[in-house]
Every structure is written in C-alpha cells, then in structure tokens.
C-alpha cells in the first residue's frame, strides 16, 4: 500500500493505492489493484487488472497497465489536488505499487 499526502498534520490522503499480484513463469497470473480517493468511493481497477492477465513481467506491460488504469478512475479536483495532478499521481503510483508487489511475489520486471 502506498499513500500520497501533502503534509503530516491533518493527514488526508490525496491518493492511496494498493496492489497484489501472483506470478507464473515470468508472467502475471493475477493482479489486484485498488485506489482510494481516485473516484467517489474506493475502487478496484478492473481494466488495469485485465491488461496484466497473463502478460509478461516487463516495463512495456507496466506502462500498458498504467495507461489502462485511467479507464478505471474518476478523480475530481479539490483544494488538496487538481484532477490533472491526481491522474499523474495515479499513473506514477500504479507503477510503484505494482513494481513493489512483483518484488514481494519474488519476481523481477525486465
């Protein structure tokens, strides 16, 4: 799980993300990706999860997942962050949490 917040006092997340994956012979066999504060309620990113299904563990797949996640989220602008900034964070955090989930599952992105 990774959370981005602007400050420590009154710590309200700008975006929160969690990922879990299972690997099989250098491919994703399963990816679960969820975001908080990226839509009106916490969401699972089903387009991104489908993009990963049986895909190889490489940077091209990671980039494709970070693009497809934009189909799943619906962030809004607020006093904490603009919609555009949240979309940037979502793509960046997607890559970070998936990379960490792959490492935790014993894999390595090529």
TrEMBL record:
Pfam families: CO_deh_flav_C. Keywords: Oxidoreductase. Residues 1-101 form the CO dehydrogenase flavoprotein C-terminal domain. InterPro entries: CO_DH_flav_C (IPR005107), CO_DH_flav_C_dom_sf (IPR036683), Diverse_Substr_Oxidored (IPR051312). GO terms for molecular function: xanthine dehydrogenase activity. Its EC number is 1.17.1.4. It is an enzyme of class 1 (oxidoreductase). It comes from the Bacteria. This is Xanthine dehydrogenase FAD-binding subunit XdhB. It comes from Escherichia coli.
């Amino acid at each position: 799980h990774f959370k981005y917040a602007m400050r420590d006092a009154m710590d309200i997340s700008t975006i929160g993300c969690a990922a879990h994956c299972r690997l099989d012979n250098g491919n994703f066999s399963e990816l679960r990706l969820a975001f908080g504060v990226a839509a009106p309620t916490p969401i699972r990113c089903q387009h991104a999860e489908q993009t990963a299904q049986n895909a190889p563990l490489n940077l091209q797949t990671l980039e494709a997942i970070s693009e497809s996640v934009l189909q799943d989220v619906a962030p809004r602008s607020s006093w904490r962050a603009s919609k555009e900034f949240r979309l940037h964070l979502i793509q960046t955090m997607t890559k970070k949490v998936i990379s960490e989930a792959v490492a935790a599952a014993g894999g390595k992105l090529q």
